[in-house]
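From the shared-data thread, chain only:
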Amino acid sequence: MSTLTHWHYVRRSELKNIIPFIGEVDFIVNTALPYELPILKARLSGYFPRAVKALRGDPKRQDAYIRACRLNDFLAPLTEVADDSIVPAGSLLREFIGGSRYPV
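Structure, as tokens:
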């Protein structure tokens, strides 16, 4: 849950250090692959409902609650894919799901 409760720090830095300069770049590369979200859902599907329940009603953690709700609703319609064998060992996704060829 620490990622959710600290997300405002990430967003603040993004607004300060990335968004203002987005118009100055030569290229924007979207590296997202279609299988990533279904594979992540298989690992996170139980986490966000629990986070929503734990954060609900806590005024000091309202931002985290809103983000947990948003992610829970975003992942809900996706079909889970538990078999991660299609994810290459060199994929950035492996940093989050394990099995990376690179030492983390």
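The helical segments are 2-5, 7-17, 36-44, 47-55, 62-75, 94-97.
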